[in-house]
Amino acid sequence: MDDAKLALTLARGRIAIGLAAVIAPGLASRALSGRKAEGIEPLLARMLGARDLTLGLGAVIALDRGAPVRGWIEGAAVSDAVDAVASLLAKKRMRPGAFTGARGGVGSARRLPLTQAGSPASGAPPPARGSDHRTPRVAESHRVADEPTRAETEKRAGARRE
To answer: Which are the contacts of 100, defined by CB distance < 8 A and separation ≥ 6?
Structure first.
């Protein structure tokens, strides 16, 4: 499996887990603690679910558009590391299987090599800041099209006014 496909698979898994926690926070809380969710636990489960959903969607959208995904993967790795520390601190309150699952999920983003461009398996350097470059836009059912930059759009608008 190439790096982009692995990143996509992990991002889709993160979306599924996040969506499940947002839709059924009581079930997500119960999966971690082994007891009925009470008090603020459902709220926290929804918040964590929304975070995972956002990180997963960001990575999928970046991959779909051919944009760098490095920031999304690094953000996911940081959140997974914080989750691992939090799980370690709460180990006595978690059911044993949940602690093992939380510990195992931490290494998933670490498996992806990140290149200079920030996109897995991409050897191209990132565009210079402020450069007038075009970002390719990719859709599954469409051909690759060039999206004009802001400067090009403003230049065209100015030419029309004259």
So the answer is: none
